[in-house]
């Protein structure tokens, strides 16, 4: 299945979003999807956004998707829902114990995204699940808490040591495509954490992207479409020392819109800079509609209160002003398209190796009865998703200030 935001190669033209969607629709009941909705008209941007609804979910019940066409957005939404379903219902064997109790290779828990607190990942018992190290093709066990997405209460004993998110959870047309997607997401979240730790838009103004330097036809057209609505856009090149292009985008509501949606962020990582920027722009548009629709389970009601909205809108204006300063970076040159998903995966692994990372674990969650390749990518040493609510303990890279 072609990624809904990736520009397909000529050889993939016969496997477009409409054909992929037709293949996915019969699989929806098996994954608990009861509705596939078009949300595009809720926003002034006109960028296709869809939602897949899973009422009996064990995590989020509404999953958004985006794309350049409505069919692509629907494919994206179904694939997001598929990822969650597979991570909520894991059938693989688990082991219980301390790291030293497992008679198999295990990941070093000190190099994994941690929750704050007094827990000791070496001494505390927890559940473990088997993965495979993509660097060596050897088995390696990782904490189950970093893999599953069953957030129903009560959580298994030993939970609370590691950051329980969907970071690195990915689906794809092939196992290699899913692996590449999951690794890119993990690298993106790490780059975002480093950017936030450095002060984000206000602390790294020189990393603001000069949008006039964007030459990719699809990206440039999307920027024009958004600006034609009166909304303002800013973007930052937050690529880390790993060197895989990563961008953050914000879309700010028009100044004359009294009911404007507050600033929303989008971020993405991809080997091709133009594709990374495109995905980040689409992500920002999706997040706007997610906010407008009010259907996202993890958006607290307090985030819709006036003080929270005004604070975020004020911060968005400050970020926008910083991005328009005199020091801006040009859009990186286009990268050659990989010959296949396997080549793309090898290139990502090579970048990680050259940056000093020794492992990249993939936990296969694919269900034979559904047939969509799904799994979780975990790269020991990368930072986890950055939060400001005290639910994350920054790791060594954030403390050391890793930069490109």
UniProtKB/TrEMBL annotation:
Location of the region described as Disordered in the Swiss-Prot/TrEMBL record: 383-404
Biased composition (Basic and acidic residues): 394-404
Keywords of this entry: Ribonucleoprotein, Ribosomal protein
CC per GO annotation: ribosome
Cleaved signal peptide residues: none
Listed InterPro entries: YcaO-like_dom
Domain YcaO: 65-404
UniProt key word Ribonucleoprotein: yes
Record flagged with keyword Ribosomal protein: yes
Highest taxon listed in the record's lineage: Bacteria
Protein name per its UniProtKB record: Ribosomal protein S12 methylthiotransferase accessory factor
Organism: Labrys wisconsinensis
């Amino acid at each position: 299945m072609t990624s809904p935001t990736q520009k397909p190669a000529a050889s993939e033209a016969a496997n477009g979003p409409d054909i992929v969607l037709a293949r996915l629709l019969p699989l929806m009941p098996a994954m608990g999807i009861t509705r596939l909705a078009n949300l595009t008209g809720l926003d002034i941007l006109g960028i296709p956004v869809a939602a897949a609804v899973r009422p009996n979910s064990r995590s989020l019940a509404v999953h958004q998707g985006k794309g350049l066409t409505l069919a692509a957005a629907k494919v994206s939404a179904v694939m997001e829902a598929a990822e969650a379903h597979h991570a909520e219902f894991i059938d693989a064997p688990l082991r219980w114990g301390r790291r030293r109790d497992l008679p198999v290779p295990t990941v070093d828990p000190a190099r994994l995204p941690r929750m704050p607190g007094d827990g000791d990942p070496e001494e505390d018992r927890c559940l473990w699940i088997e993965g495979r190290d993509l660097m060596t093709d050897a088995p390696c066990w990782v904490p189950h808490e970093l893999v599953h997405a069953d957030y129903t209460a009560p959580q298994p004993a030993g939970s609370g040591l590691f950051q329980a998110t969907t970071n690195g959870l990915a689906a794809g047309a092939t196992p290699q495509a899913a692996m590449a997607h999951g690794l890119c997401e993990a690298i993106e979240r790490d780059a975002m954490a480093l950017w936030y730790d450095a002060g984000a838009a206000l602390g790294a103004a020189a990393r603001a992207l000069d949008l006039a330097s964007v030459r990719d036809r699809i990206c440039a057209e999307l920027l024009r479409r958004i600006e034609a609505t009166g909304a303002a856009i800013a973007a930052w090149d937050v690529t880390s020392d790993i060197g895989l292009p990563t961008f953050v985008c914000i879309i700010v509501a028009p100044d004359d819109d009294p009911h404007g949606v507050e600033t929303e962020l989008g971020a993405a990582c991809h080997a091709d800079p133009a594709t990374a920027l495109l995905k980040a722009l689409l992500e920002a548009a999706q997040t706007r509609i997610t906010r407008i629709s009010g259907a996202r389970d993890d958006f607290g009601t307090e985030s819709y209160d006036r003080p929270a909205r005004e604070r975020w809108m004020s911060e968005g204006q400050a970020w926008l002003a910083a991005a328009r300063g005199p020091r801006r970076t040009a859009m990186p040159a286009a990268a050659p398209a990989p010959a296949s998903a396997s080549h793309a995966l090898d290139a990502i692994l090579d970048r990680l190796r050259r940056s000093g990372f020794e492992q990249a674990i993939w936990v296969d969650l694919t269900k034979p009865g559904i047939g969509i390749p799904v799994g979780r990518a975990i790269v020991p040493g990368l930072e986890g998703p950055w939060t400001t609510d005290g639910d994350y303990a920054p790791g060594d890279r954030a403390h050391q200030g890793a930069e490109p």
